Amino acid sequence: MTDAGTHITKAEVNAGFFDGAVARILQLQRPSGAIPWYDNGVLDPWNHTEAAMGLAVMGKLDEARAAYQFLADNQLENGAWWAQYGAAVPMDDHQYTGNEEDEKRVQDTNMCAYIATGVRHYFMVTGDRKFLNTYWPVVKRAINFVLSLQTEHGDIRWTAPSVTTPENDALITGCSSIYKSLECAIALAEKVGDPQAHWIAARAKLGAALRDKPERFDRTWASKDNYSMDWYYPVLVGAITGEAAAARIDAKWDTFVTKAKGCRCVIDQPWVTIAESCELALALLRIGRRSDAEMMFAWQHQWRDEGGAYWMGFQFAENVPWPVEKPAWTAAAVILAADALLGLTPAHDLFTREWVTEAGMLAVPA
Predict the structure, then answer these.
(1) pLDDT computed for residue 164 by the predictor
(2) Could you say which of 1, 10, 115, 320 is the most buried, measured as most Cβ atoms within 10 Å of its Cβ?
(3) Which residue, among 154, 23, 60, 161, has the nearest Cα to 104 in the 3D structure?
């Protein structure tokens, strides 16, 4: 697989290749530190954290810290966050206290867990112990909230129960992301000297569910296996490894990958999405397929606007960007993939190697 694309170098990155992508994130960031999806869009804690990681890679550390402070300022008493800010929940409030109607809002476990990945990433980039000590309590509360919704089978409910989200079900992509966040949280716990043995046990159970209990996912709604993320995420996070991981990628490669364009978001639409394509590149690196990862990443740079910001996706039947949005998280996903491929920061291999085994052993120094 050696199709045409733009293969960038570290020198090109240092010369400003991603200036437009970084500018897009900074253009969207609010004075409170909040980073919404796109112009007039809402914020969710997962994509907000992804954007903060992109800023950290590119040396925008003050802005990245402001993003994490927004999360600290808005963490709910139970350790969670709302799944959306900027609609009923104002983004520019330092602290949102809620009301009876807003208490019905979704508290998504995957979104809440991701701060552990973000804090681990920032600490790997900077080695800043003050930052780590400041945000460790935030991470600890968030992870304990998430694990309060784990079932005896190992899967983790997608959201806290409420009258608006009564479905007691789990998502493969969401639980896979939580699996990675738990790895990061366990490594952070060791670093601060506050080990959490129950997190290790919970992650092992979750990994077993992802590998061996497909019946625990999509029990009450239609299967999500038409989404590419359900395909590659268990590989990206290391829940499925070795020959099984390679077989999983091979099984749906021709289904989801469109030559010289990227990874489709869903099977039945002629639509590649840049963030998913960059995450797939990380998954390919994880299983040792570097040339395929480089190819996938190289295809993505054709989806930039004239200023260097990345479109969310491209509808190739109509030959147009779609949606006509340039999300902060898309820019960040590209930057994180560049770091993984080019070694821009000390956090370049956060997503592409095992750091903590399911038995809780540190695979490499935390």
Answers:
(1) 85
(2) 115
(3) 161
* Residue 144 confidence (pLDDT): 98
The two tokens of residue 252 are 């749906």
H helix and E strand count, the chain:
13, 5
Prediction pTM value: 0.95
pLDDT digits (tens, 9 = 90+) for 56-74: 999 999 999 999 999 999 9
**98: pLDDT strictly greater than 70:** no
Interval 195-247: pLDDT, tens: 999 999 999 999 999 999 999 999 999 999 999 999 999 999 999 999 999 99
Partners of 263 in beta bridges? 257
Instruction: Show the tokens assigned to 324.
Output: 């006509």
Pairing of β 320-321 and β 257-258: unpaired
Q: What are phi and psi of 362, to 5 degrees?
A: -70, 120
Q: Are 125 and 57 in contact (CB under 8 A)?
A: yes
Per-residue exposure over 152-174, b if at least 16 CB sit within 10 Å of its own CB, e if not: eebbbbbbbeeeebeeebbbbbb
Cβ atoms of residues 18 and 334 within 8 Å: yes
Q: How far is residue 15's CA from residue 35's CA, in Å, rounded to a whole number?
A: 25
In eight-state DSSP terms, residue 18 is T
Residue with tokens 């960007």: 321
Q: Residue 294 and residue 275: Cα distance in Å, rounded?
A: 15
Q: Which CATH class is domain 10-342?
A: mainly alpha
What are the tokens at 222? 């239609």
Closest by Cα among 80, 75, 119, 94 to 32: 94
Q: Which sequence spans correspond to the domains of the chain?
A: 10-342
CA pair distance 10, 344, nearest whole angstrom: 7
